[in-house]
Every structure is written in structure tokens, then in C-alpha cells.
Amino acid sequence: MLTTTRAAQNATEERKKGLMANVATASLVRLGKEKDLKLADSDQDIRGFKVLDKEGAEIAQVEDLLFDESEKKVRFLMVGSGGHGPAKIGKKKKSLIPVDAIAAIDQKTVTVDQSGADIIGAPDYDPEIVEVPKEYWDRVYGWYGYYPYWGPYYRYPHWGYWSPYTRP
Questions:
Q1: Number of structural domains in the chain
Q2: Which of 35, 61, 134, 144 has the highest count of CB atoms within 10 angstroms of its CB?
Q3: Per residue in 121-130, pLDDT tens?
């Protein structure tokens, strides 16, 4: 019995190592950057939608979607936020919101289960970086308090909004 338990633990550890290695080379691509990548249903394209925090305040706008090519699922919303007050004075920044944070989507808004301060304070994202280090993805998931998609306890959101996507 102990041998079986150790074997199971070793298999779990090997699986975790494999998943962690995959995330370092995972192929997350931006919908807007890939000309031959599109959503299977164009009605599901939420780029340009306003992002509302859990109190209903507008905090950002969806600028792009990041897909996991290996599993054919959207993993993050790339949002632009920033500026303070009615004149939006200040630096605009880009950050990522895991799809796990989405609480609701309606005709032109995406509501997330995070506060405005959480979104504004999230780690910056530079869309021009080709290979994003794994530590960055760890920081993003840690910031929002979700399990990373490569982890053993991760479950894709039940609404499964963007699956599948297609390449013509």
C-alpha cells in the first residue's frame, strides 16, 4: 500500500513538473496579433467592452484576448486602464485579468469579481515581450488569488465562454 501511495505521489510530482515546464514555453497568443486566429463565434468577441469592477465602476477596457493554443481556450483578458478623475490624467497601463475573474458579460460590459484597486494595482503587462517569464504568470495569478491554469487544482470557468477558436 505504501508503495502505491509513493508511486501515486511520484506520478503527481512528475505531472506537476511537466505542467510547470509546459507553462514556461506555453503558447499564449493575442487574438489581435494573429491574423489567422479568430473566435469560432464572432458574437463572443468582447474586445472593446468596458470592464466593470465588482462594485459596478468602470475601470478598464478589454483590448485583446490571450489564447492558450495547446488547449484552445482563452486564459486572459488584456485590459487598458489608468488615468485618474474625469479627465483620466496619468499613465495608462496594460494588465491581464484571468478569465476566472469574470462574473458576468452583457452586451458591452464585462464585470469582474475584483475591486478597481485590484485591477489598477495588478502587475503591468508589456504586449511587446515575446517570451514572458513564468514568474510573471505566477505573479498575475497570485495577485488575483486564483489557481494557475497549469496547476493540479485548476478548473476552467464553467461558462466556457470562448471555446473553441479556429484558424481558417
A1: 1
A2: 144
A3: 999 998 887 6
pLDDT in tens, 8-18: 344 445 444 44
Q: How far apart are CA 161 and CA 125, in angstroms?
A: 23
Contact 106, 159 (CB under 8 A): no
Instruction: Report the phi/psi class of residue 138: left, alpha or beta, with left for phi > 0 and alpha for psi in -120 to 50.
Output: alpha
**Domain carrying residue 107:** 2-166
Q: How many residues does the chain have?
A: 168
Output the domain CATH number for residue 124.
Answer: 3.90.50.10
**Residues in the chain where the model's pLDDT stays below 50:** 1-12, 14-22, 24-25, 85-89, 160, 162-168
Q: Which three cell numbers stand for residue 117?
A: 484597486
Give the closest residue to 111 by CA, choosing from 147, 60, 73, 167.
60
Distance CA 58, CA 28 (A): 27
